[in-house]
Amino acid sequence: MPIRILPDEIASQIAAGEVIERPASVVKELVENAIDASASHISIQIEGAGKTVIEVADDGLGIQPDELALSVTRHATSKLTSAEDLFKIDSLGFRGEALASVGSISRMAITSRPRQSEMGMKLQVDGGKAEKPQPLGAPSGTVVRVEDLFYNVPARLKFLKSDRTERRHISTLVTHYALAYPQIRFQLKQANRQVLQTSGKGDRREVLAALYGVEIARQMIEVLAQFDDLIITGYVSPTSVTRSNRREILFFVNGRPVQDFTLTTSLVKSYHTMLMVGRFPMGNLFLEMPPDAVDVNVHPTKAEVRFRKRDEIFRGVGLATRQALLANTPVPEIDEMQERIQWIDQSFGRASEQKEMDPAWGMEEKTWSGERRADNVLAPELSQVDRRIDSGQAHLPEVSVPLLRLVGQVAATYLIAEGPDGLYLIDQHAAHERVLFERFLAQRNEEIPAQQLMEPATVELPLASADLLEEQIPVLSKLGFQVEPFGRGTFLVRAIPALLAGMDPGAALRVVVEDFEEDEEPLKDAIENKIIARVCKRAAVKGGQVLSPEEQEALLRDLEASQVPRTCPHGRPTMIHLSVDLLEKQFGRRGSR
After folding, report:
1. CA 448/CA 441 separation, integer angstroms
2. CATH number for region 361-593
3. Residue 393 and residue 571: Cα distance in Å, rounded?
């Protein structure tokens, strides 16, 4: 085929594809323009998850009447004047592609009036074709209204996620900018419902409450440190508040949200030895440095950056976080020490008190060292055993396990049992997860018994989680929950499944939406199973929790009766088998290793 120059219309749509991935990308570009225009109030209105209408209004400087038409042409910007300016960018936007890209794939209207002008101007752009600006009366500032996004590139519409997912992307994005600029008053409405409103008083904890909920926002630890030209501020979570992934770790460099694996790794490493394996902290850190110390012209969406002194910034983030954590680590109190002594007494049979077994396994949790798992104490020894039995462990039956005789409990985490073919080490948490999970599944075919609460429990959730939960209420009702909305981000729990009678209703509800994947559809059976597995994980007995002999025996018998006793619902093994043959080899009674 002959080489030819693409028409401007196609070239604009190709360029827009690099910048505008979804409705949230439009919101991002327009909000950044408003911030660069020194706005003190930014209002965002969304309809149809952003595919129908996106309107961003601000009270910033506005666009000069004679520059309005120029603002929607490609590479038109007021941020750069020379190539050297690329290496000292102090604004969010600088390429001059945002308005041109948005206008080429939508029907866009821009209304703007500078503060010193008496008359505003309106410009209409349809699929990249701009009309002549028209004068009209308007308040100072700029209003950009985008309608029918991707109407002329329908293939792009097919790749968008569900409306719920797109709405959540938008609300999360706006909340992130509200965190970075707490002195700006943000207002977000989606489908005529107010999702976010900040006061603009400069209080970041106020925005954290909207993002994570009031309780978590209150627990977040403040970070404040300076290393030469690097200033680090923000908040990180205490060791008691964790997530199963790194999605809640956010970084802002000179007010710009960025994705950087090095920074994330530094923050996670600062929690070394403080968190369980597979758990990650939450963090919102704001890095301020000279503009020439960072290159933001790396990625089309400006989400990635490069640092001139990468190692120094890596160390600074880790040191600042570690200092904040250590400064807020509570000194062990007398009650905690007494709890440890009581655990030792019970573990070695010197405690005379025996507690009645809770049929729902909602027992009081006793840990060896607060939030730290007791199995960490035996990690080196267990790892050696794992290496030795890796090749010699007898293969467990695929369907069931033999009748076992309980021997006892070790490290308040594992049960020891004897079978006809050797020794079994059983993880009490994973085993109880499996037992609860199969009980739920057995009851789901009928009507899951629910326990009515004497008084409804009020649960507040972050707005993004609340939106997700509302669409899962029909699923929850099938699983024994009775939940109803009670205002913005608030729910009333009137009943919970009878199997979870000993569990806090708020915790049971929060675990439903914690770490949920954005593409999950709540009405599928697979999602029901995932919700059940999550609730069972939270309700199961924990590692480090002392069980009475009766409770140990009951758990062992329930596990034997399970259909899939060897793994928990998440695929983690519930037991390790040490065959008699392997034990004899280890003790030198038969052959060599």
Report:
1. 9
2. 3.30.1540.20
3. 19
DSSP notation for 57-114: EE-S----GGGTTGGGSTT--SS-SSGGGGGS--SS--SS-HHHHHHHTSEEEEEEE-
Answer for the pair 258, 304: CB distance below 8 angstroms, yes or no: yes
State the CB neighbour count (10 A cutoff) for residue 194: 11
Q: pLDDT digit string (tens) for 508-553? A: 777 766 655 444 444 445 667 777 787 787 778 888 888 998 999 9
Please give the Cα distance from 418 to 413 (Å, whole number): 17
Residue spans per domain, the chain:
8-200, 220-327, 361-593
The pLDDT, as a whole number, for residue 128 is 86
What does CATH list as the number for 8-200?
3.30.565.10
Side chain identity at residue 454, one-letter code: M
User: Virtual CA dihedral for 101, 306, 94, 171, nearest 10 degrees?
Assistant: 60
Q: What is the DSSP letter of 237?
A: -
Contact yes or no for 497/476 (Cβ under 8 A): no
Under 8 Å between Cβ of 241 and 282? yes
Q: Is 532 helix (H, G, I), strand (E, B) or coil?
A: helix
Burial class (CB in 10 A: 0-12, 13-18, 19+), 434: buried
Alpha-helical regions (H) of 189-333: 204-212, 214-219, 261-269, 310-327
Judge if 220-327 and 361-593 fold alike in CATH terms: no
| pTM above threshold 0.70 | no
Calpha distance 125→107 (Å, rounded): 6
- At 389 the pLDDT is 38
Domain spanning 220-327: CATH 3.30.230.10: yes
